[in-house]
């Protein structure tokens, strides 16, 4: 972990550009179990998630790329963040480097330098921690007859930390209260959706008993990162479940994706997270009535794509979670222009957050910012400008100048006092 304080916080630009069609109107409060007449802080909190594809194919390459301010992709994703101006943002697919070296370089050389006239942004607080990606398991997890390589790691990756993540914040991170769940075992989730070998008669037997004794649920990690916003703590619940593809009829990645998503649904529901333990051995889920925002590339669409049925509905249908339903006009335009699988989708393309292959699976809603019932959403959006907008140069078309995912943000009103 690499928290740091470096001078005064940069003032947010109230009129920051966020791309044509990416802003959503004010949202009415959905029904929730919280008491009315809550007193909120004056300024809303903007929370974002962004799979910015700053992963690299060789260990150490990201540090090299970020060591100057000249890397084109890093400049582009930094400008997206500057234009959206979130107060707190989760970055997915940002390679883990011990000591926060890569994070510091990204802040120093890119975020804190104006990109094409966008206001520079400072994030004095950061949290980084190891990822399961690329860590050898010692087992033949894909059952191909050999042991080794990315598919046999605890999370897919060709070196430790590839496809990692980082939380950046303009508000203090309560470092002593951070919880990580990198080593939580999949078998320890009651009713786990363990994959089944279709060539045998035994159920849920894709992984051997020996493999399940070490198999970790998180393909990267799950983090509970408390952020102090005024006198109120907001828990940033960060993760990046595995894509529900790149497997066979056993659907080992689809079932894992489902249960990685379920982890947060249980963690925030009072009484359901008693089985959970963190990397320090502390048991239990989130304290009832806590404020939280679930963020990350969940790799699951409510209606389309390859995820297990209702995987993301575990969060979207939770009594304890609000869905502000961020949208963009750029996603609608892209779906119509690209056609292919998009033409057969059941979901409304305005909710899409990722520009995937037109043949399969098409564009999907994969990235989420989901606040708790204790927080009041007031606006939301997906940074996906239409092609007529000059800022569309930041998203583009394949091969993308930034990422195949789009930054998603939600503004929430935070209570003045509370947990």
UniProtKB/TrEMBL annotation:
- Which superkingdom does the taxonomy of this entry point to? Bacteria
Question: Where is each Endonuclease/exonuclease/phosphatase domain found?
Answer: 49-405
Disordered: annotated span: 338-358
- The residues the entry assigns to the signal sequence are 1-28
The keyword Ligase is annotated on this UniProt entry: no
Gene3D superfamilies (alphabetical): Endonuclease/exonuclease/phosphatase
Swiss-Prot/TrEMBL keywords: Endonuclease, Hydrolase, Nuclease, Signal
InterPro entries cross-referenced by the UniProt entry: Endo/exonu/phosph_ase_sf (IPR036691), Endo/exonuclease/phosphatase (IPR005135)
What's the short name of a Pfam family annotated to this entry?
A: Exo_endo_phos
Molecular function (GO) terms listed? endonuclease activity
Tell whether Transferase is among the UniProt keywords. no
What is this protein called in UniProt?
Answer: Endonuclease/exonuclease/phosphatase family protein
């Amino acid at each position: 972990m690499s928290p740091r304080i470096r001078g005064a916080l940069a003032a947010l630009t109230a009129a920051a550009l966020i791309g044509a069609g990416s802003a959503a109107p004010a949202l009415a409060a959905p029904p929730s179990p919280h008491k009315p007449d809550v007193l909120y802080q004056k300024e809303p909190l903007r929370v974002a998630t962004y799979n910015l594809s700053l992963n690299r194919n060789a260990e150490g390459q990201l540090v090299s790329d970020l060591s100057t301010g000249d890397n084109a992709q890093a400049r582009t994703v930094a400008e997206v963040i500057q234009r959206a101006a979130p107060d707190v943002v989760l970055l997915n697919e940002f390679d883990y480097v011990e000591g926060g070296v890569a994070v510091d370089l990204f802040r120093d050389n890119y975020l804190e330098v104006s990109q094409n006239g966008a206001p520079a942004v400072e994030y004095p607080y950061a949290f980084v921690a190891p990822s399961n990606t690329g860590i050898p398991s010692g087992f033949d997890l894909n059952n191909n007859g050999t042991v080794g390589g990315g598919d046999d790691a605890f999370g897919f990756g060709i070196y430790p930390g590839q496809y990692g993540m980082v939380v950046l914040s303009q508000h203090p991170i309560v470092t002593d209260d951070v919880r990580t769940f990198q080593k939580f075992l999949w078998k320890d989730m009651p009713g786990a959706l363990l994959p089944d070998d279709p060539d045998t008669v035994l159920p849920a037997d894709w992984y051997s008993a020996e493999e399940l004794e070490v198999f970790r649920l998180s393909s990267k990690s799950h983090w509970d990162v408390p952020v102090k916003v005024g006198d109120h703590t907001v828990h940033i619940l960060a993760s990046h479940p595995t894509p529900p593809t790149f497997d066979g009829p056993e659907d080992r990645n689809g079932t894992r994706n489902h249960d990685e998503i379920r982890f947060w649904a249980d963690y925030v529901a009072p009484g359901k997270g008693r089985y959970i333990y963190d990397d320090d051995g502390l048991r239990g889920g989130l304290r009832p009535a806590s404020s939280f925002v679930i963020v990350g590339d969940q790799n699951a669409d409510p209606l389309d794509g390859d995820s297990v049925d209702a995987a993301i509905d575990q969060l979207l249908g939770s009594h304890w979670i609000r869905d502000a339903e961020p949208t963009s006009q750029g996603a609608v335009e892209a779906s119509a222009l690209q056609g292919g699988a998009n033409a057969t989708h059941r979901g409304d393309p305005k909710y899409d957050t990722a520009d995937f292959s037109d043949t399969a699976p098409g564009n999907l809603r994969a990235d989420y910012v989901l606040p708790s019932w204790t927080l009041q959403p007031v606006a939301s959006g997906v940074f996906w400008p239409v092609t007529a907008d000059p800022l569309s140069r930041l998203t583009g078309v394949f091969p993308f100048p930034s990422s195949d995912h789009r930054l998603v943000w939600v503004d929430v009103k935070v209570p003045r006092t509370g947990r």
